[in-house]
Amino acid sequence: MHLRTRPRSTAPVPEPHAGPPGSRVLSVHRLGALGVAAVILVFGLLGFAGGLAFFSTSGEQILGMSSNGLLSTISVVTAAVLVVAALRGPRIASTVMIAVGALFILSGLANLAVLRTGLNVLAFEMSNVAFSAVAGLTLLLLGAYGRVTGNLPPDSPYAAHREPPAPEPSEFPSTPAEFAAERAMREAEIAVVQHWATAEQRRRVAAMARVHSRADRRRVWMEFDAPAG
User: Fold this and answer.
1) At what angle do helices 23-49 and 69-88 cross, to 10 degrees?
2) Helix (H, G, I), strand (E, B) or coil at 96
3) Model-level pTM?
4) Which of 12, 77, 103, 225 has the smallest set of CB atoms within 10 Å of its CB?
């Protein structure tokens, strides 16, 4: 009994849908700003909920860190800035994250210098300094991702799109005329070495000596065969 087999389909399997170029980089900027903003916002709102004194230098414990009313206000404002930047666009979010990240690190260093003094108006403790450093570095890394690094991802919209360099002429012959020129070149060079070359061969070999690459030597030789314009 003969069974007829169904021919195997040769249609290409559709590839999964890929996002537009740069979508990964831009998503990191937007989602990174929103994620850090959420953490800072929770810290600030919990400080408001606890009714902290505005300028207290001792502070109260919130999520393992010290806080007062001023620090809670700054936290909420910073979170709002990051959220607005993310909503305005990923490029703006990237710039704002880099700026805010640098300010976080500077704030941590400045408050470390006034720790345990009357100038500690944000009621910082060492846990706050550590959080400022971690949050600052996180914002800097997220904001700089795919933008300011030396080796940008292929899908980065910040990568400079350069035109591919023009292909260099091949060193090897590829046409019948070039193969014929190569044979004539070798014969002329041998004739010059053995001192029985014609005047035309000596003239061509002398002209080829002014260039170095094989392709250029072949081009010089073939220019002698080109009809005079």
Assistant:
1) 160
2) helix
3) 0.59
4) 12
